[in-house]
Design goal:
Elements (H helix, E strand, L loop, with lengths): L1 H4 L18 H5 L15 H6 L2 H16 L1
């Protein structure tokens, strides 16, 4: 995505697929990335069991990525 920025500076992207809490900051630092998507925010087991405490913790962590 970084190499696409020079020829298409107006284009903005929302990468998904393979994004993790560890890799998200690298993507978010790119000038043409406005957000990222990741299933880690709502793990399947937590959703199935209704574990909103766990999901909320992941969501807070994802929110902090935008502020770092």
């Amino acid at each position: 995505l970084g190499s696409i920025h020079a020829p298409l500076p107006e284009a903005r992207f929302c990468p998904t697929g393979g994004i993790t809490p560890a890799s998200a900051p690298e993507y978010l630092a790119l000038p043409n990335v406005g957000c990222v998507g990741g299933s880690w925010v709502a793990p399947t087991k937590a959703l199935a069991s209704g574990d909103w405490t766990e999901i909320s913790a992941y969501a807070r962590g994802a929110s902090r990525l935008c502020r770092s």
